[in-house]
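Renewal narrative, Specific Aim 1. Our central claim is that a sequence can be written position by position from structural information alone. The example that follows is taken directly from our test logs and has not been curated for this report. It begins with the structure tokens describing the chain, in the order in which they were read.
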């Protein structure tokens, strides 16, 4: 409430006028307090705190009892309470969960003032802003619209810049040829000097960066089991308190599971159990023989050895030459001598990238990720999404980055009321339940067991498609060899002249028939590829 300094001043004024006994001044103070919305003061504060994830029991707790992440939420809450024409927000969603982020987006959309915002959350930018200012190569460029519109406009600009650069190079080459050809001719001296000046004045068109600065991937182990993880009648919690009870689920290769639920429901508890940091209080979580775990959580950023550098952290895990270390860390955005800089000098984003890089070195079969995009810039989030897409193992993730969830996740688990269940719907459906909690209580369309059966059936169909695709590729190789041999016969004059008419006709018929078969198999191969892409 201290964020609204004017209402706080009026509250003090009311207390002072009460003490003075001046009825007129008391009345004026109350009237001014009412005009400023004083009677909704506490309600506004409670609405903001609730929207950012605080429970009503938290409202009267001392500030010092909250962790660092929750103190940052409190700072944001106080900022939102401050009456302002201009609001400056630097990465405001870094320490918010998905539910708080959705609420915050709606709050900003309804804010009457001007917002100047730095954020790496694509959905937030798409839903809230109407202008993007992009700083690149020491210049600021303005684009109308949200982030998706900015990407489209920038892509068009890149095409235009590439075209302009090609035209400029062609013009340079034309001018150079003229200068080189006529430099020694006195009759052309004036024209040569004129063209030399044009060349000197010609400003090179800036080449805009078109590639991501990150080039990493998560390599899977040689073998993946089915299922990878079996959770049976599992209960999780701390001390004598159960957080999750009687949960049964399975995790298979290529599963992309997004874990949803309100703050405190048990999302991080579930991930800690999958990572082996806590043991079930009842039931079991069992891992197949070849299922190794890669676990990312925010606390890992703080336990990195600050006195050591990124190269040291890599060499702790693998035997690399210095060039291999440079190549590996370069793919994660650590260039030049950055690999020898002490970790204590790293930003939050650099620490997060280093932790993810060390996880990738282990080649885990299952990635367990708890808010991996905090502190990451837009390019890194895009690269992470791409790497997770291509990963052959399984992923279980908690994140407030809606774009990452939409791109990478193919099913959701909802942690609610001490249980874990399959959420029937997509992210938009879940966001709707945040605005209308009663929707969460609607019965599921299918049971978790039925959903697992559907997933198993889908995997079997996918295996059949992959097997058929391999057979087609083998057959195509054989047929293409046959076509090449026939081509050699049909274009060789000696072979052509030695063959009789019947042989020639057989070769031509076989060539046509083989080409037709190849075309049919190629069409089938393309159809399988499209079906596999969608699965």
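The sequence written for that structure reads:
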């Amino acid at each position: 409430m201290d964020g609204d300094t004017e209402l706080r001043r009026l509250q003090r004024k009311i207390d002072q006028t009460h003490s003075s006994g001046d009825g007129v001044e008391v009345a004026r103070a109350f009237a001014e307090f009412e005009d400023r919305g004083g009677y909704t003061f506490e309600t506004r504060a409670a609405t903001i705190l609730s929207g950012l994830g605080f429970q009503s029991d938290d409202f009267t707790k001392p500030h010092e009892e909250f962790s660092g992440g929750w103190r940052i939420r409190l700072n944001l809450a106080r900022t939102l309470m401050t009456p302002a024409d201009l609001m400056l927000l630097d990465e405001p969603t870094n320490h918010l969960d998905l539910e708080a982020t959705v609420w915050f987006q709606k709050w900003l959309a309804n804010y009457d003032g001007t917002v100047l915002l730095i954020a790496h959350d694509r959905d937030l930018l798409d839903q809230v802003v109407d202008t993007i200012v992009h700083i690149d190569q020491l210049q600021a460029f303005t684009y109308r619209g949200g982030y998706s519109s900015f990407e489209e406009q920038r892509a068009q600009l890149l095409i235009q810049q590439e075209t302009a650069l090609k035209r400029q190079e062609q013009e340079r080459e034309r001018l150079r040829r003229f200068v080189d050809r006529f430099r020694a001719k006195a009759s052309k001296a004036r024209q040569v000097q004129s063209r030399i000046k044009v060349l000197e004045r010609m400003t090179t068109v800036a080449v805009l960066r078109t590639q991501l600065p990150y080039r990493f991937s998560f390599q899977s182990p040689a073998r993946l089991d089915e299922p990878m993880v079996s959770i049976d009648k599992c209960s999780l919690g701390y001390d004598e308190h159960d957080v999750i009870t009687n949960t049964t689920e399975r995790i298979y290769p290529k599963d992309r599971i997004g874990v949803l639920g309100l703050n405190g429901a048990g999302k991080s508890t579930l991930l800690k159990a999958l990572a082996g940091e806590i043991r079930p209080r009842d039931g079991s979580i069992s891992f197949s023989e070849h299922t190794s775990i890669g676990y990312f959580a925010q606390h890992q950023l703080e336990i990195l050895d600050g006195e050591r550098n990124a190269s040291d952290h890599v060499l702790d895990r693998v035997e690399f030459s210095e060039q291999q270390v440079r190549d590996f860390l370069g793919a994660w955005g650590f260039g030049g001598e950055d690999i020898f800089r002490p970790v204590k000098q790293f930003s939050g984003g650099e620490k997060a990238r280093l932790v993810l890089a060390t996880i990738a070195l282990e080649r885990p079969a299952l990635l367990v990720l708890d808010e991996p995009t905090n502190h990451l810039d837009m390019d890194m989030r895009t690269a992470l999404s791409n790497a997770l897409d291509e990963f052959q193992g399984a992923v279980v993730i908690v994140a407030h980055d809606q774009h990452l969830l939409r791109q990478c996740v193919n099913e959701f688990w909802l942690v609610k009321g001490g249980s874990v269940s399959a959420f029937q719907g997509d992210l938009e459906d879940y966001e709707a339940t945040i605005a209308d909690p009663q929707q969460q209580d609607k019965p599921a369309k299918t049971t978790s067991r039925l959903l697992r059966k559907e997933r198993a059936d889908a995997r079997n169909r996918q295996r059949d498609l992959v097997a058929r695709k391999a057979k087609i590729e083998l057959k195509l190789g054989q047929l293409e060899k046959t076509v090449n041999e026939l081509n050699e016969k049909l274009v060789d004059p000696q072979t052509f002249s030695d063959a009789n008419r019947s042989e020639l006709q057989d070769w031509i018929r076989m060539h046509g028939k083989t080409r037709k078969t190849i075309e049919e198999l190629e069409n089938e191969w393309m159809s399988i590829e499209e079906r596999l892409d969608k699965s």
